[in-house]
Design a protein that fits this description.
Blueprint (H helix, E strand, L loop, with lengths): L2 E3 L13 E8 L7 E8 L5 E8 L6 E2 L2 E6 L4 E6 L9 E8 L11
Antiparallel strand pairs: 1-2, 2-7, 3-4, 3-8, 5-6, 6-7
Protein name: Ig-like domain-containing protein
GO biological process, one term: adaptive immune response
Organism: Bos indicus x Bos taurus
Length: 108
């Protein structure tokens, strides 16, 4: 079974600085293709997707969000740079096993 673990509680930082959230995950030995998602939970409870990482791709980046994906260690971290006041929230990682690799089929 898949599981994710986040070891941090509250992180205190300042506007303009960067912050890093860590996530460890576990997968079944036969899981060969998966994605890891980072979400931001707003004060009213809404979950907003921020960025996702596919298991077969290099480190993802989107705007002020970037990840450091270490597949061999089953570890992924989220870095938020140039912090803004609206970044105050809870952050969660989630893992999704993908049933099969996407294959392109070409016909002549």
């Amino acid at each position: 079974a898949q599981k994710v673990t986040q070891d941090q509680s509250d992180i205190i930082s300042q506007v303009g600085q960067s912050v890093i959230f860590n996530c460890q995950y576990g997968i079944d030995w036969f899981t060969y293709y998966y994605s890891i998602y980072w979400y931001k939970q707003l004060p009213r409870g809404q979950m907003t997707p921020l960025i996702h990482q596919n298991s077969e791709h290099g480190n993802a980046g989107y705007g002020r969000y970037s990840v450091n994906f270490q597949k061999a260690y089953k570890s992924i971290s989220l870095t938020i740079s140039a912090l803004q006041l609206e970044d105050s929230a809870k952050y969660f990682c989630a893992l999704r096993e993908l049933s099969s690799k996407t294959k392109e089929v070409h016909s002549a």
